């Protein structure tokens, strides 16, 4: 067969493409970043990732979303099998558990090579990302809860913003006016991931109690009494007994449930508690302006929890440096221009201005404490959460009295403590 | 001229071996698939049930603890409650309901009027709607239907003046099992109806006609001829639906997560909670093995009864 010029050209082109494709593929790194916020809250994050991809053609990042409840178990299955995303979005409380089982890359060498942000000491809640003095996760976003309310409803009922738990109960009763408007709404579901856990701890902590504590170095004990727990159960159950909270909330688990977000906006609920992102979602669909206020004070103090999200790198990743470069980008002020969360870095946080209706969060942040005590205890936090939510649900539905349920809580905490120690 | 029969040439040993191996080679692919996807995980689960192993240490071997996990599961009071919930409220009630409703609906749909008006295809399609709805979607839809404040069911009941306030069906202990059973029966009924309908349509019409000529009325035809002929099909349906329902996780988990409190906790949700909330894979696997043993015993008794009758 005679080789015509166009055949020569075609052959040369094919050879060039064949040679160039692997070289191009080698140059371009593809990373998977998995996060668990709902798609309704990730538009800003996707925007930040798009900006990264546009300015970093050689490191392309694909965002993967997974339901929060499934993420941890999925990671625990994938990583031992040599798989999993390159970069993982984690709850603060997960980092140590994952690190203990070598499911996260130790970040020390990467931090030393290129420190993130204004330096490692600039980050909040770094102790939760640390195990045996080694860092396994970078605190990314920080949040706490504030009371969210409809000022117009409080004004119409002549009710002042409640300052203590007792005042909250009284105000909720006054705000329940019988035409489908209830004073207080909160997720009272029994699911292991129900939001009830948060409120229970606010109530207990502010009244001087805590579930478990390290009473002496290395000795962990259940320190809350049956009276403490039964008191909290009775307090929250009274909202249902008095009709200040709708009974349907006994099936609601998430703070982001439409019954809470939409309820506040429609005026079905006068007061609830929200983290910042959820408050913004509620405000976006509210008929009237919303405000935030302080979490009610107990007999001892006023307190909330410092929660948040961290970023970890998979020990199986083939591109740790590139993953670290992307993590540093996520931590940077540039990301927070579109990513609608509070940063877990003091310097970035200080540089931000918060709107007037979010002042509740700003005031609560200095009063917030992490779940470090529970995370350090021999009990898995998820077990404690599941137990508390289940037994509060048992009281709300009338299965058990507060006294019976609080005893179940104490007995099971003791069992979990013993098992953890063994 | 007669043709004498000639003996076939003797086969080579390789050919004989090939013929002997042939059936085994034919079933080998299927057996490998079964071993890889079914037997392998089952054996791993049994091995896991004898170990103490955290969810985070799945890549490693756990600590062998003998029967400790089984002892813990069997002495835990919550297991007893879960077993009652699984057996009675989740399985027996819904299987019986499905059999009764399925038989009744199948008899109705088998009526000659549908074939006379050429509507058989329509009723079969309509009855399949719940079956083609994914369980997750079905439960989500039912949760909205049953919502205390905005749900259609409560709105209708209030509109009819039967109730003054919406009932939180999934929050009250008096109504929660009924709500879950409604979701399950609605979604799973078509399988029973379609299977019985197929069996009904395979019964020769001559049998009914002969019975009518002999003076039998419609009730006698149904009880003396139709039902006995349906017995093998009903037996298979009972076995399958019982096993599927006993092991079912989806309906309870999506509807209530085992709540309120632990009122609707079943063995499948207990297994999930132990494994993925308490991170105790060994104890969770032990719950799974106990569930399998119960179903294995059920199947043995069932087959024993069926074969003894035959």
Largest contact between protein chains? A-B, 40 and 30 residues
> What's the total count of β strands of chain A?
15
Order of helices and strands of chain B: HEEHHHHHHHHHHHHH
Strand line-up of the largest beta sheet of chain A: 2-1-3-14-6
Looking at the structure, the CATH topology of chain B is MetI-like fold
CATH homologous superfamily classification of chain B: MetI-like
Order of strands, main sheet of chain B, comes to 1-2
Apparent shape of chain A: globular
Structural class of chain A: alpha/beta
Counting DSSP E segments of at least 2 residues, the number of strands of chain B comes to: 2
Task: Sketch the major β-sheet of chain B.
Answer: 2 strands, antiparallel
Keywords (chain B): Cell membrane, Membrane, Transmembrane, Transmembrane helix, Transport
Family (chain B): Belongs to the binding-protein-dependent transport system permease family.
Protein name (chain B): ABC transporter permease
Domain ABC transmembrane type-1 (chain B): 84-302
Task: Write up this protein.
The complex is a heterodimer of chains A (422) and B (310). Chain A has 422 residues and is α/β, with parallel strands linked by helices. Chain A has helices at residues 5-27, 43-55, 68-78, 95-100, 108-113, 151-157, 165-175, 196-206, 226-241, 258-266, 276-284, 320-331, 333-336, 346-351, 359-364, 372-376, 381-396, 402-421, and strands spanning 29-35, 59-65, 87-91, 130-131, 134-135, 138-143, 146-149, 182-184, 212-216, 219-222, 269-274, 291-293, 304-305, 307-313, 368-369. Chain A has two domains: 4-142 and 306-369, D-Maltodextrin-Binding Protein, domain 2 (3-Layer(aba) Sandwich), CATH 3.40.190; 146-304 and 378-421, Periplasmic binding protein-like II (D-Maltodextrin-Binding Protein, domain 2, 3-Layer(aba) Sandwich), CATH 3.40.190. In chain A, the strands form five sheets. Chain A has a five-stranded mixed β-sheet with strand order 2-1-3-14-6. In chain A, strands 8-11-7-12 form a four-stranded mixed β-sheet. Chain A has a two-stranded antiparallel ribbon with strand order 4-5. In chain A, β1, α2 and β2 form a beta-alpha-beta unit. Chain B has helices at 13-49, 68-75, 77-109, 112-116, 120-127, 129-132, 135-145, 152-159, 176-201, 205-213, 218-246, 250-256, 267-276, 281-309; strands at residues 51-52, 63-64. A two-stranded antiparallel ribbon of chain B has the order 1-2. Chain B has 310 residues and is mostly helical. Chain B has a single domain (64-309), classed as MetI-like fold, CATH 1.10.3720.10. The mean pLDDT of chain B is 90. Chains A and B meet through α3, α4 and α17 of A and loops of B. Chain A: Residues 1-25 form the signal peptide. Chain A: Pfam families: SBP_bac_1.
